[in-house]
Structure formats: C-alpha cells, structure tokens
Design a protein that fits this description.
This protein is of the alpha/beta class. It contains seven helices and eleven strands. The chain has a single domain, classed as Spore Coat Polysaccharide Biosynthesis Protein SpsA, Chain A, CATH 3.90.550.10. It has a seven-stranded mixed beta sheet, with helices on both faces.
C-alpha cells in the first residue's frame, strides 16, 4: 500500500515560473489535474502537507481536491525546514495514523509524475536494505523527490525520535543544507540510492532552463514549467 505525499508552498520562490507568479496554487493545481486524470495502481492515500498556516490556503486546496477519486488528507504546518519538514511531518503522520501504508512517494510540489506507473518505477528499485530511493543520487539525494520505506522509517523514528535530520530553519540557506543532511540518520543501517541510470531526470534551474541528468530512455518525474 502506497501514499503520495506532496510538500506544498504558496509563497515566493527562487525559480521563476510565470504561471506560478500569477497563481500561487498553480503547482498544486497540476497535482490535482494529474490525480484526477490518472488511475495509479495501489495508491491508497494522497497526503498534502501545506507549508502554510492560512485558513484561506487550506480551504482553497480542500475545495480543489474534493472531487479526486483517491482518499485525500490535507494538513497545515509552519514553513519550517521547507519541503523536508513537510515530508517529515507527513512521514510521522503515516507511521502513527496509517500503519497499513508501507511506502510513500515524497514529492516537491513543483515536480509531477510523468505517468501512472510512478509508484512502481520507484518501488522496483527497493530492496531489503534500502531506506530511500531518490530521483538522482551523487553523495547525497541531489534530486530529493523519492520513495521511502515506512517500515524502516518507523525503525529510525523509534530509535532517534525523528526520521530526518533537519536544522529547524526557514530561509533558503537552511533549506539548502537540509538536502545534504536529511537522510543522515539512516546511513548507519540502511542504503540510500538513486534512479540515476534507470530514467531521465529533468531539472529546472533558477533561470528557468532545464538540464537533463541520467541515462534512461524516459523521465519518471518532471519539473512543472
């Protein structure tokens, strides 16, 4: 059983995207459209973690996703630790409230799956020793969208009282450092791997151009432009 966890944010960003500037719900709208139009096998829960404490944001997203055919839960949180903090709160929620769900796809809201096979594409790379399969791995999760094994996450949580190693900051210098450290708690016991050579991995630069990494024949996730 799988969950689809999206870290959502509606404030200013470093990457320029004209439709987002005009409509801060542009990215989350794209996830709504994807989920509305695709039947994803074995998807049991959509978890939207809003890096916002505004009732207006919560109400807007609730209304938007009210017609999706999947079970949807939406939570607001202060924008601490950015996407990584949102993912962490989502993972803790799944551990405590949804023990039946064994894996979760963690996505930043400005990336979108390319087709309905996204869960299987990540899950096929999992093995008994793997904690996290990210999009692209160097010496860390360089493209950090990925799939987490929630059984192993529960193990780390029981030992450390948290799953990710985060710094508690809210500006970009802290958020950038989280990318390099968020999986540090698991490395003593489990593997972190990437889909480097299995797929193509488009990456949107701050200037708005797209660089493609990887050696596969198709992308699994793509930036929303």
């Amino acid at each position: 059983m799988f969950a689809y966890v999206v870290a959502c944010y509606f404030g200013p960003r470093r990457v320029h995207c004209a439709p987002y500037v005009e409509n801060p719900y542009y990215y989350v709208q794209k996830h709504f459209e994807f989920l509305k139009s695709h039947k994803i096998p074995n998807l049991d829960l959509v978890l939207l973690m809003l890096n916002s404490t505004l009732d207006s944001d919560l109400n807007k997203v609730k209304e938007m996703f009210s017609t999706v055919d999947y079970k949807v839960e939406i939570y607001c949180r202060p924008n601490i630790d950015g996407s990584y903090g949102a993912w962490h709160d989502g993972v803790i929620n799944l551990i405590n409230a949804h023990p039946e769900i064994k894996y979760a796809l963690l996505i930043e809201d400005d990336y979108i799956p390319c087709d309905e096979n996204v869960l299987d594409d990540f899950h096929q790379a999992m093995d008994d020793n793997t904690f996290y399969v990210c999009q692209f791995y160097t010496n860390h999760a360089a493209m950090s969208n990925g799939m987490i094994d929630l059984t192993k996450a529960k193990d780390i949580y029981s030992r450390a009282g948290r799953v990710f190693m985060l710094n508690g900051g809210s500006d970009y210098r802290f958020l950038d450092s989280n990318q390099g450290t968020f999986l540090n708690l698991v490395r003593f016991k489990y593997k972190v791997i990437g889909l480097n050579d299995k797929f193509l991995h488009p990456f949107s630069t701050r200037e708005g151009s797209v660089i493609v990494y990887g050696n596969g024949d198709r992308p699994v996730l793509t930036p929303i432009l």
